[in-house]
Amino acid sequence: MARDILKTLKQEHDLLRSLFDDLKGTTDRAVKGRAELLDKIEAHLIPHAKWEEKVFYPAFKERADRDGLQTLAEAVSEHHAVEHSVIPEVHAANPDTPEFAGRSKVLGEFVDHHAKEEEKTMFRMAREMFSADELAQLDEQYEEWKASPDAEKLLVAEKAKAASLGAGRVRAS
């Protein structure tokens, strides 16, 4: 099968949906399982989102018309809300509480909504903006970046930032 960044991103969306389904199926007693699932979710979500922000979205923006720019603005706002509000709120809750279950459900709903919008609108537009060779090249760049030390450093830093913001919310409540 030919490489295609849009197919790769869609596969990652599907994986995240599956992980959120697994998380939704846990109980308050599954502290370790919930923590492990949140860790897996972040390990897939953070690099995915950051690469979109640093590479895919700017490339999309260069070629987008007005509708594309509006779609992009929505996607960026959703990333911002998840990064600065929803993920820290999940971190602010103890995994053995109904608050954690509710907040992680909201995170899953945000991610699912965002993924559906990207797949339905942005990816359709991108398929017209980029050639098959360009989509394959973006896919290769993404795979290389995800395996790089820079991606690992970014993941560690973003998880620490989310935990720190979450800890600040615990103290404030």
Note the total helix count: 6
Strand content: under 5%
Mean pLDDT: 93
Termini separation: 51 Å
**Number of separate strands:** 0
Shape: elongated
Q: Look at the helices and sheets and give the structural class.
A: mainly alpha
Q: What is the succession of H and E elements? A: HHHHHH
Describe the structure.
By secondary structure, this protein is an all-alpha fold. Helix content is 87%, strand content 0%. It has 6 helices and no strands. Helix 2 packs across helix 6 (149-172), helix 3 packs antiparallel against helix 4 and helix 3 (66-92) crosses helix 6 (149-172). The mean pLDDT is 93.
List the helices and strands and how they pair.
Layout: H1 5-24, H2 31-63, H3 66-92, H4 98-129, H5 132-146, H6 149-172
Offer a few descriptive terms.
173 residues; mainly alpha; 87% helix; 0% strand; elongated
In short:
The protein has about 170 residues and is mainly alpha-helical.
